[in-house]
Write a structure and sequence with these properties.
The chain has about 375 residues and is an alpha+beta fold. It has three domains: about 100 residues, no CATH class; about 190 residues, no CATH class; about 60 residues. It contains ten helices and nine strands.
Length: about 375
């Protein structure tokens, strides 16, 4: 079979680095043994120098610190080994699979309107190819934005797949899950509801606790003061976060000028919302057959949070969230003689091609 032949060729290419894997694994094990030895020495020293109660605190702190370091070290070392294999075998693997290094660009992701706001695109893996007459590009990405305090906020983590569509697209149309709020992110990448509701509960609980410990509310003035302690902080949060969110939302709506459109498929309407600049064209693009095939993708990728965009004259983009590391051909902790990672890698590629088959993107006569 062609599949077995390709897997075997990739396996032969990667297998030559088995000695490198073993050496790196031994170095890692020796490093962890050394860390445990140092930890044991430090614990013994502390127990001899300080009281038992103090020693227990130091003991716990060191144990937690070492556990964190070991977890980071094991994970990071594995990533470095996988990057090493990719750098050595990437060209051969791409040749065997008839793919190249190009991935989905940040500009294309922005134009799709699938994400309200993001700043950085971190690509773990990316490539493009052609299958059954359809060009595709795939990126395993993490989209992030900066909070007002400078922290990275994860907007999306998963696969972004771009296809050349077989119909001309005049106006943008997107399909999103009802519970997907990533297209409504504010300027800091935050959803105000996620802050406002928990903050309301926290502030109210604190005020109730304070007045309960002081004997409760005994007059109208104290009631007004208590309500002020709740309302004023919430009003401040709204002005700082909520108002910019509303302004940005209004600007985006005017800029995009998209409206919600329902389709005839009751099952589809139950989970998904269609935003479009042209409801008539949306019904032309998203036919009953397309909706049925779109729902099949849920089973293939085991998620209901798939969303897609028709844009830029003939582009169709899918965003599929996933927590799994896809397109991995090896692991430091598994012998390279074992083909399971290569088989999984090949299977991941085939799953992408299923989208073309399921949605019949190669059918030039329509959907």
């Amino acid at each position: 079979m062609i599949q077995d032949d390709i897997i075997e060729k990739i396996h032969v290419k990667i297998l030559r680095y088995e000695d490198v894997r073993i050496k790196r694994l031994y170095v890692l094990l020796l490093r962890e043994i050394f860390i445990f030895a140092v930890l044991f020495f430090l614990i013994k020293s502390f127990m001899l120098c300080v009281m038992d109660s103090d020693a227990s605190v130091f003991f716990l702190a060191m144990i937690l610190g070492v556990i964190y370091y070991i977890f980071y070290d094991i994970t990071h070392t594995n990533k470095l080994f996988k990057s090493f294999i990719k750098s050595k075998c990437s060209n051969a693997i791409k040749k065997f699979l008839s793919i190249n290094s190009n991935s989905v660009s940040k500009n294309e992701i922005t134009k799709s309107n699938l994400f309200g706001y993001f700043e950085d695109v971190n690509v773990d893996d990316g490539f493009c190819g052609e299958y059954d007459g359809v060009d595709y590009a795939i990126s395993e990405v993490t989209l992030t934005a900066k909070s007002s305090k400078g922290f990275d906020i994860k907007i999306f983590n998963g696969l972004i797949i771009l296809f050349d569509f077989n119909k001309k697209i005049l106006k943008d149309t997107i399909i999103v899950h009802k519970h997907d709020d990533s297209i409504k992110q504010n300027i800091h990448g935050l959803n105000i509801k996620r802050i406002f509701i928990p903050l309301t509960l926290i502030i109210t609980s604190i005020v109730i606790l304070v007045f309960s410990s002081s004997g409760g509310i005994k007059s109208i003035d104290e009631l007004g003061f208590a309500l002020g302690l709740i309302v004023v902080p919430l009003a401040y949060v709204f002005l700082i976060l909520g108002l910019p969110f509303l302004i940005l939302h209004i600007i985006q709506q005017r800029k995009q000028n998209m409206v919600k459109t329902k389709m005839e498929d009751i099952v589809f309407n139950k989970d998904y919302i269609i935003h479009t600049k042209d409801p008539i064209e949306a019904r032309y693009l998203i036919t009953t057959a397309f909706m049925e095939r779109f729902l099949k993708l849920q089973k293939i990728f085991k998620t209901k949070n798939i969303k897609c965009s028709f844009f830029q004259k003939n582009k169709l983009m899918f965003a599929i969230p996933t927590r799994k590391d896809l397109f991995e051909v090896c692991s430091l902790y598994t012998s390279l003689k074992n083909k399971k990672y290569i088989e999984k890698f090949y299977s991941d590629i085939e799953e992408i091609k299923k989208i073309i088959d399921v949605l019949k993107l190669n059918d030039r006569t329509g959907l």
